[in-house]
TrEMBL record, chain A:
Major subcellular site: nucleus
InterPro entries according to UniProt: ARM-like, ARM-type_fold, MMS19, MMS19_C, MMS19_N
Compartment(s) of residence: Nucleus
Protein name, entry field: MMS19 nucleotide excision repair protein
UniProtKB/TrEMBL annotation, chain B:
Residues in coiled coil: none
One annotated GO biological process: chromosome segregation
Lineage per the UniProt record: Eukaryota, Viridiplantae, Streptophyta, Embryophyta, Tracheophyta
Protein name: MIP18 family-like domain-containing protein
Entry keyword set: Chromosome partition
Keyword Cell cycle part of the UniProt annotation: no
Domain MIP18 family-like, chain residue ranges per copy: 31-97
Signal peptide residues on this chain, from the entry's feature table: none
Any Pfam family: FeS_assembly_P
Entry-linked PANTHER family: CYTOSOLIC IRON-SULFUR ASSEMBLY COMPONENT 2B, CYTOSOLIC IRON-SULFUR ASSEMBLY COMPONENT 2B-RELATED
SUPFAM superfamilies according to UniProt: Fe-S cluster assembly (FSCA) domain-like (SSF117916)
Keyword Cell inner membrane: no
Superkingdom to which the source organism belongs: Eukaryota
Family note: Belongs to the MIP18 family.
Length: 1170, 143
């Protein structure tokens, strides 16, 4: 009974309308949910519910009855998937059907009917009779248009549901229902309801037989016709989720639902076509083509004449008066954004396909078209043609092209009737395609081609080409041979190609240059892209076309438009061949185009600007895979050849090339004068393609790297001027890129090769290193360290290092111990790649060698031993050792000892620090704890001077370098240990390092007594802070900010530190503007606001970098948002400082200053007199 | 105050495309709002770029503006806005002169005198109502 009383309570709260509306709707929804869940769980049956609700359903109080019925309806909606027995459904439906008559409580009845009618067949079915009863009640009782919007919508949904799901039940109602539909939808205005009404008409038209519909067609169309064209007067589109396009599409479906609408619809649409409203025009065209398909050819035929003239008008009036000759429009139609034109051509295409005979006769007999044909011969150049005639000319062109495209038969007639007279206008005769088509007497035709005729001719050829590409029957080779258009085209092809080629020879200052070039290239392009092998265009013609374009690319680069168009055309032809597998043409393309282009890259001819070469190579290379491979191969050969020449013979070609190089250098200035760098840059650009398709290109990469090594092996003696840094850098970069994208297997091959070359080298004491004898470091070697004795060794070592840097972790590095020793020695000579390679090795070596022990295989632990514990270097007596260095056994020392300053040679120490820093970075990234020892070594270095008391300038630089080692540790480098180069990266390694090292440094700063050691420690901190993710820094903003401030003031004295100053400032502005860590960051900022402001104000006049000044002012703006009481005392100071920035030489700074001044001025009274 | 707007239906012009600036001092009043209308002064052609004369070396700026109608009582307010904006945007070394274009205002001399009188400008800026109005007009320039 408790349940029953609860139920009553819930019902009561739903039915009750007395409380406030917002509260009420929540309450009602809640009680609805409760009752629904009771029903779903079978705690309550529908029968008991209805019995309980009896009073609410039958009371004479309209409001309560309406709510009661609505509750029942809503509940049924909730129960849509719960199975109910047939009797319940039947009786419920009968009830709701009955209630449709009760207009005062209609909503509930509609909801209920809908809920029941929409039920899935699984849980109880509605019988046909029930549905019929609903429909009958609907017809009798509902006056849809007198209802409110939501109720109307429900009514339409009900009607739609009946028509769609119970066709059998409603069809039998026949005329009554149709009449009811007409009545219901008449005068509807709401967009949502309209979507439904349009759909209802569409469904009804399908459902009822034509005989029945015939009586209603005119009525229905009268109702629908008012809505065309759809026009929204309501400007705010966001009010409705229904868009104009949706409505328009729905109405179109309704229009075309039955062919009975034809006598009404077509005249209406044709009439609206002449409307001045753009959207109406577009809509009419769309509707017409849609209806044409739906109504069928018979019905359309009587309107055909009218349609033809309307379409013609639309096409004539919508054409742009001038063509654009830009290279983008080479392949496309060029009118893409003109909706009316595209739609009218679409419509023409549709009607033409439906009734081509009729339309063909009209087109061929059309007076306007014939007039144009007569008049074109009177204009010689495109510019002479008057605007109006141009418009007509284009219209004719598009009409002809649409009709020729439609079918082979249509194409035959169009070509037969128009093509010969065009050829006549162009002055061409039937060429003999068997003889050589390009005799050198092209001059006869030069500049004489009639542009109007040429335009139409190109349009027709384009149409033929598309017809050929699209239709199935031309896939077999022999088919088109019988077609007349094909014979026509074939007979004229040779002379046409010759004529087009001659138009390209016009000079740039001629009047009609643009037009000539554009038409010439376009015509040739179309001739070149006919499908079907050499059917229409013989191979010699095709090759001649390619030759023409290629020679333009190579020699006519000063002629920008022509060059661009030709390149575009070549790209089009290339991708056309690739797409349609034209094997014969592919061969010619490879022979003619690709060969030339490749030789372009490797040539020593510097008259053509390099960017243009690069553009041509990469564009054409991208057209097809095979071409790309070929080009890459060619480039690679070029690189090797040039590199060899540079390396072995010094400067490759004699005086001639040198002159060219110098000329190029002084004129353009942007190219590097090294021939080898040319191919390198192109390789770099093509590398993007490689990255995407590593599969096919891996062998290329592999071959490239191996070839370079072969080259090095071959060139035994290097010339001295090879010592060009740029060239080595470029080669190393390419090597890293190539090796880095190889797979493990290929990398192994490269390694073998590289190692052989390395071990053949005479310089490296590999045997010595293998036995554990310390390397003799005598003074002679050390003095030479900066200029490495032989450039060949430097090359080999650096290249080998770059191979190691790019290695994958799984790759087997031969003879690791030797390699490590080798790098350890070269490292001390200041070879940075060697240090990076070591870092990369310790980063990637496996912890335990898995599987069988290979000779020379080395585990990570062993490598670490070699690096840190072995005493590699011994000294002659001539090198004085520092007495207090940490030397244990006489004259042998290790890497860390050198760092600590065991020798008195400063440069040696610097190199050791750099090496250790890279090794440390490798360890840090893999998360090895040995990195702690390394950092401790650095810190020792930092503090060394405080122990010693006095220090020279040289020493100072060493200490500074040690501080900068933290930059290497924390920074991201492109050259080494990046993700691309397969580094092992432990997540959050920066955060971890930050949190371990910062406390140590902080306590050291506090303890430090001399200003110099303090500044050095701050420098180290600055490097760490600026490379740590901001979130971590934010967490201890309180301790970081003072260091940050110290760092800023210390570092701002030296110009060379401007980058680190900027990155520190960015950290600061990050802290100031951070939104999330408001509590932590903001508190710290508030606490030391005056210190921060003092420091930032100094940076406003930082002379070395504009960005620093700008960011400093931005920081001040951010500071102005701090609590008023805290910053008010600083106001005056800030305003004075910023007013100086108003006179800054850079505009960006001045603007920031104005903003800052305003922000600070408005913290108190706005008066300007502060 | 005045009932109704003084110029109820102003002609609105398009904003001029900003040309790339040289490194000389900048003056940007183009975004100042008209006191009467929600348009910027540049859109109303009260201020044009040609009517601003800047001499960076001699630290001198002269702005000549054209009120929309001859008897525009807002001329002084517009002038005040311009002056405040320039005071806030320019380094203090500049001397700023603000003039009504000759022949475009009924009480031209009086307005010019008022706008270039230091004391009267200072006094005007101590009037909170006036300062509020000026600030409202200048608000879009500090976005």
């Amino acid at each position: 009974m408790a349940e029953a009383s609860q139920l009553i309570q819930h019902i009561e709260s739903f039915v009750n309308l007395s409380s406030s509306p917002t509260h009420q709707s929540q309450l009602q929804a809640a009680s609805l949910d409760v009752i629904a869940s009771l029903l779903k769980k079978n705690v309550l049956t529908i029968e008991t519910l209805v019995r309980e609700m009896g009073m609410y359903l039958t009371t004479t109080d309209d409001v309560i009855r309406a709510r009661g019925i609505l509750l029942l309806g809503e509940l049924l909606t909730h129960l849509a998937s719960k199975p109910l027995d047939d009797a319940t459904i039947h009786s419920m439906l009968a009830f709701f059907t009955d209630r449709l008559a009760d207009w005062k409580a209609l909503r509930g009845a509609l909801v209920g009917c809908l809920a029941l009618l929409r039920r899935k067949s699984s849980g109880g079915v509605i019988t046909t009779n029930d549905a019929k009863a609903v429909a009958q009640s609907y017809i009798q009782n509902l006056q849809v248009q007198s209802l409110a919007q939501h109720d109307r919508k429900l009514c339409f949904e009900l009607l739609e549901c009946l028509l769609q799901r119970y066709p059998d039940a409603v069809v039998s109602l026949g005329e009554d229902l149709l009449y009811a539909i007409c009545e219901a939808i008449d005068g509807e205005k709401d967009p949502h309801c309209l979507m439904l009404t349009f759909h209802i008409v569409e469904v009804a038209a399908e459902l009822f037989s034509d005989d029945l519909l015939a009586n209603f067609a005119s009525d229905l169309f009268e109702i629908l016709g008012c809505y065309f064209p759809i026009h929204f007067t309501h400007s705010k589109a966001e009010d409705f989720d229904v868009k104009r396009d949706d409505l328009s599409r729905a109405l179109m479906a309704a229009f075309s639902s039955t062919s009975l609408f034809e006598p009404f619809a077509i005249p209406l649409l044709l009439e609206k076509l002449s409307s001045s409203l753009q959207s109406a025009k577009v809509d009419s065209l769309k509707y017409l083509s849609h209806c044409t398909v739906k109504y069928g050819a018979d019905r359309i035929e009587k309107h055909a004449k009218a349609m033809w003239s309307s379409i013609k008008d639309a096409i004539y009036s919508s054409h742009e008066p001038t063509l654009s000759f830009a290279s983008e429009s080479l392949d496309g139609v060029g009118f893409r954004d003109n909706v009316i034109l595209t739609e009218s051509l679409n419509l023409l295409d549709t009607v033409f396909k439906q009734n081509s005979g009729l339309f063909l006769s009209w087109i061929i007999g059309d007076e306007d078209i014939n007039l144009i044909f007569k008049s074109i011969s009177s204009y010689k150049t495109y510019k002479e043609i008057s605007l109006q005639s141009k418009q007509k000319l284009h219209a004719v062109g598009s009409i002809l092209s649409v009709s020729a495209k439609a079918s082979p038969a249509a194409c035959n007639s169009v070509m037969e009737s128009f093509f010969p007279c065009l050829m006549h206008a162009l002055g061409l005769s039937v060429g003999n395609s068997t003889q050589d088509c390009f005799p050198n007497d092209g001059n006869v035709l030069r500049g004489k081609l009639n542009h109007g005729a040429l335009y139409l001719c190109i349009e027709l050829m384009t149409a033929c080409r598309e017809l050929m590409a699209s239709s199935e029957e031309f896939k077999s080779v022999a088919a088109p041979a019988n077609e007349r258009w094909y014979c026509l085209l074939r007979s004229y092809a040779a002379s046409l190609a010759k004529a087009l080629r001659s138009t390209l020879e016009t000079s740039a200052n001629e009047d009609s240059y643009e037009t000539n070039v554009y038409f010439g290239v376009k015509g040739l392009l179309i001739l070149g892209t006919f499908r079907g092998g050499s059917l229409i265009i013989s191979n010699s013609i095709f090759e001649n076309i390619l030759l023409t374009f290629t020679s333009i690319i190579i020699s006519e680069f000063e002629n920008t438009l022509l060059w661009k168009l030709a390149l575009k055309a070549l790209v089009h032809i290339g991708s056309f061949i690739d797409r349609f597998n034209e094997s014969e043409k592919a061969l010619s393309y490879m022979d003619v185009v690709i060969e030339k282009i490749v030789s372009l890259a490797s040539s020593h001819d510097f008259s053509m600007p390099f960017p243009l070469k690069l553009e041509a190579i990469s564009e054409i290379g991208a057209t097809g895979r095979n071409y790309l491979l070929k080009i890459v191969q060619g480039l690679e050969e070029a690189v090797c050849a040039n590199l060899y020449e540079v390396l072995v013979h010094g400067n490759p070609k004699s005086a001639e090339v040198v002159v060219q190089l110098l000329e190029c250098y002084s004129n353009k200035g942007r190219q590097r004068p090294f021939p080898a760098s040319v191919p390198y840059q192109s390789i770099y650009k093509l590398a993007n393609c490689w990255m995407h398709e590593i599969g096919g290109f891996e062998e290329v990469l592999l071959r490239f790297s191996v070839n370079i090594w072969n080259l090095i092996e071959k060139s035994v003696t290097f010339r001295s001027q090879v010592h060009e840094k740029g060239l080595l850098d470029a080669t190393m970069k390419a090597m890293k890129l190539a090796v880095g994208s190889c797979s493990v297997e290929s990398q192994n091959i490269v390694f073998q090769k590289a190692f052989t070359v390395l071990s053949l080298g005479t310089y490296f004491p590999l045997e010595d290193a293998a036995s554990n004898i310390p390397i003799q470091l005598n003074e002679f070697q050390l003095t030479q360290e900066t200029s490495i004795s032989s450039s060949r060794e430097a090359w080999i070592c650096s290249l080998f290092a770059s191979v190691i840097i790019a290695a994958r972790p799984q790759t087997h590095i031969p003879n690791v111990r030797l390699v490590i020793r080798l790098f350890m020695t070269t490292l001390l000579k200041g070879n940075v790649p060697a240090a990076q390679a070591l870092g990369s090795m310790v980063n990637k070596l496996g912890l335990k060698s898995n599987g069988t022990e290979v000779h020379g295989n080395c585990t990570f632990e062993e490598a670490m031993d070699i690096i840190f514990d072995s005493k590699l270097w011994s000294f002659n007596d001539s090198v004085t050792l520092r007495s207090n260095g940490g030397l244990e056994n006489g004259s042998s020392i290790g890497l860390t000892d050198i760092c600590r300053g065991a020798t008195n040679i400063r440069s040696l120490q610097v190199h050791a620090i750099a090496g250790l820093a890279w090794i440390g970075k490798g360890l840090l990234m893999r998360g090895h704890e040995k990195v702690k020892d390394i950092t401790m070594t650095f810190i020792e270095c930092l503090l060394s001077n405080s122990k010693l008391g006095s220090f020279s300038l040289e020493q100072e630089s060493v200490v500074k370098y040690a501080a900068d080692a933290f930059k290497i540790l924390m920074g991201d480098s492109e050259d080494c240990l990046s993700r691309k180069l397969h580094a092992t990266i432990r997540p959050l390694y920066k955060q971890r390092f930050y949190s371990t090292i910062m406390p140590i440094l902080q306590s050291l700063i506090i303890k430090s007594n001399s200003s110099f050691s303090r500044s050095i420690l701050c420098r180290a901190c600055a490097h760490i802070i600026s490379d740590t993710p901001l979130i971590v820094v934010l967490n201890d903003a309180k301790t970081v900010i003072p260091i940050l401030m110290d760092g800023l003031s210390i570092l701002s004295n030296d110009v060379s530190d401007k980058d680190i100053v900027y990155s520190l400032l960015l950290v600061l502005s990050g802290i100031l503007t951070d939104k999330n860590g408001k509590t932590i960051g903001q508190e710290a900022v508030i606490e030391c606001a005056h210190i921060i402001i003092d420091h930032i104000i100094k940076l406003i006049s930082y002379p070395h970098m504009m960005l620093v000044r700008e960011t400093a002012i931005q920081c001040l703006v951010a500071m102005s948002r701090l609590p008023h009481a805290r910053i008010y005392p600083m106001r005056r100071q800030v305003l004075q400082a910023v007013s100086r920035a108003l006179d800054d030489p850079k505009r960006a700074v001045r603007q920031e200053a104005v903003r800052c001044r305003q922000a600070w001025a408005s913290t108190a009274s706005r008066s300007l007199y502060f | 105050m005045v009932s109704g707007l003084i110029n109820a239906n102003p002609v609105v012009y398009e904003k001029k495309e900003r040309r790339a600036r040289s490194a000389s001092s900048c003056v940007n009043d183009e975004d100042i709002k008209d006191p009467e209308h929600p348009y910027s002064l540049e859109e109303l052609k009260v201020i044009t770029e040609d009517a601003i004369e800047v001499d960076d070396e001699r630290s001198y700026v002269r702005v000549t503006f054209t009120p929309t109608v001859e008897h525009c009582s807002m001329a002084t307010v517009i002038g005040l806005c311009l002056r405040v904006k320039l005071m806030r945007s320019l380094p203090p070394r500049f001397k700023v002169d603000i003039m009504v274009a000759p022949g475009t205002h009924a009480t031209e001399a009086a307005v010019n005198k008022q706008l270039n009188d230091k004391e009267r400008v200072a006094a005007a800026l101590e009037n909170p109502n006036l300062v509020d109005m000026v600030d409202e007009c200048l608000a879009p320039t500090f976005d």
